[in-house]
Design brief:
With 215 residues, this protein is α/β, with parallel strands linked by helices. The longest helix is centred in the last third of the chain and has 18 residues.
């Protein structure tokens, strides 16, 4: 992909894996860890913190406003901001419960499917249009806009999805030069994502193997 090693960061997705596995990863030098569900993530983050492991937690899953208070207490970044009302809730909780800004990435919907979450490029609903959510996050107290995130639609080829996302990222960076992150690519499609400019890949099974539930 003609990318330098230091241009792409690995986020090890540890959902369904126990805290012991997270500590093993930390011992091997893996510092960026991703979780999708607050209930699991909050307990795991507490256990890892109690063990003294210094890691960075990325919240990756769809987030409801009633979970914001919990998430801002342990997550360093949220990759799934897709509504102004969610940005507002995160901002409020971050100001109340954090001493540093919460990193925020705006999730982009590539196919417009509301069931998968994400803002809409060129959308007309101000709560979910990409442009309005970017502006809201960038202006929100307690939040720091880092970039954008997307998941390739199931019925699209990875190259088709990430080529479109790369184009969106270019427009975002032109408007918000500090929002340089592009969170894209998972175990099954990370090669294509990296080839199309991903700065952060979210990898679970390719690192830790297939798991269905916590021990």
């Amino acid at each position: 992909a003609n990318r330098r090693f230091d241009e792409v960061s690995l986020i090890a997705v540890t959902k369904t894996y126990p805290a012991d596995d997270v500590l093993r990863l930390a011992g091997l030098g893996v510092r960026d860890l991703g979780e999708n569900r607050d209930q699991e993530a909050s307990a795991k983050a507490a256990a890892v913190a109690a063990a003294g492991a210094g890691v960075t937690w990325h919240f990756l899953g769809r987030l409801q406003r009633n979970k914001c208070r919990s998430v801002v207490r342990y997550a360093d970044l949220v990759h799934s901001v897709d509504r102004i009302v969610l940005a507002s809730a995160l901002s409020d909780m971050a100001v109340r419960h954090r001493t540093s800004a919460l990193g925020a990435l705006v999730q982009v919907s590539l196919d417009g499917d509301p069931g998968r979450g994400g803002t809409v490029v060129g959308g007309t609903d101000p709560d979910t249009a990409l442009a309005s959510v970017l502006a809201a996050v960038d202006a929100a107290p307690g939040l720091a806009l880092r970039g954008i995130m997307a998941v390739a639609p199931r019925d699209w080829s990875p190259d088709e999805a990430f080529e479109q996302l790369q184009s969106v990222a270019g427009f975002v960076r032109a408007e918000y030069p500090h929002a340089s992150w592009l969170s894209a690519g998972m175990s099954g499609d990370l090669e294509s994502a990296v080839a199309h400019g991903s700065t952060h890949v979210r990898v679970g099974s390719a690192v830790l193997g297939k798991r269905s539930a916590l021990r």
